[in-house]
Amino acid sequence: MSTDLKFAKLFAGSSAVTLFNALRAFAVNKLLAVFLPPAMFACVGQFLNLMTIGQATSSLALQNGWTALTAQNKDTPEKLLGIWRGGVRLTTFASLITFVVALLFCFMAPLHVLLPGIPTRLAQAAILFALPGIFAMNIITITAAVMNGLGENRKWATINIVASMWQVLWVAFFLYTGHLSVLSIIATQSVVAAIFAIQMANRAGFSIRKIWKSALDTRGPWLSYAMMGLVPMVATPLVLTFIRTVVSSNFGGDAAGIWQSVWKISDFLFMAMSAILTVILLPRVSPKMTRSEFFQMFHPLLLRIMGISLVMVAALYFARTLLVQVLFSSAYMGAVDYMPIQLVGDFFRAGGFALALVLIARAETLKFLVIEIGSELLLASGAYVGIRLFEFNGPMMAYAFENFVYMIVLYVVVRRLKWNTP
Length: 422
Hints:
This protein has 422 residues and is mainly α.
């Protein structure tokens, strides 16, 4: 199969799954926008950030590790079982610690400040509901990543599509009936889908029973992936929480909701691009490649990705008024004026993520962490300074600048990586 045909096939398959995920995100987002005012919408975003931190610490953010290590060891079954056993045990220990911390956080943290407008009892209930919800999300993430690493693209697609459908049905049913608070609904939306994901993965050989019977328990290779996954998954929600708080304190709760809607559109686009890139790029990069083999594969791929990103960003720019109307409601129309600057950042974000995946696949931990932490600090400080210089445009301008710098720095670093041969 030619390179172009293989790319087209992988792109088409991953795009179809991404479309389902985008429709799920759209449906959930639309339901929340219709039922909630902007200030409450921002509060839900705050709660999702807390859940993201919980998911990161409980899973050690090993999603890319599950894909890369599975792809690298799938031809040696016994070694692969040892890799899986190490990953499962690390995730189990991390989950237990995270859940204990979450219980303490539930009753000791100033929830009235973190989740304004939500009664403390409802906020505590939502955090308790989030514990099984986070566990379920981890199951879906791990099983899907393993299917990607094994090359089981149909099973990977099925897990993602079914999970998306169940999440929409779950949110729609409970919002309509009012049997749970909105935060508790969001917290538990992945529970049913996780049961299906376990069954699907078991058919491909990813069986917990087989994994626990393995004589090997390989944990060493996971440490680099844990560090590279945890830092962005924890740092990004913290930075977004900081920006949301600064926006709210300077412009009010509704303005924070408008900013949240602009960021949510960026999330939709990044979700699409990252899902496609993870399937196409991550399993193909190996430290065993020569320099010429890597760049012969990567440069054409990077050009394709930037071209696709440009088309998507241009489409969103020209359709931004309709997009905000469809995704949200008339209360969020102010977001239209601030999307163009944000879309510039989205364009560079796709290329930056492609370059970051190279460092992740090669386990270039130190380089990745320095760049990631630096970019998060640049975004936070840029937003803070930008608000004072450019008012509400500040966070969007900081986002565009941060992603441009991120991509340039990563490209220079990737060019200087050492391979098997010059």
